[in-house]
Amino acid sequence: MLIQRKASSKDEPNSRVTTKRFYYKSKALMKEVSYLNGKKHGTEKWYYESGALEYEIAYANGKEHGTKKRYYRSGALE
Question: Of 17, 23, 58, 75, which is least surrounded by CB within 10 A?
């Protein structure tokens, strides 16, 4: 499923933010990734099939920005 929305940034009013969502065969959300002008931008999130958050990875203009976070299935930060 592909969802598109206009960027809300005042610095880049003509930018396009695209959020892509990927699903397991069971139809549970696997990951969601946002792109700004075709480059990863924002927080990429991966989920366990149970729906619990597995990873959070921040991106800015296509490059990793900040720290990666990994979570146990219980929800505790690794």
Answer: 75
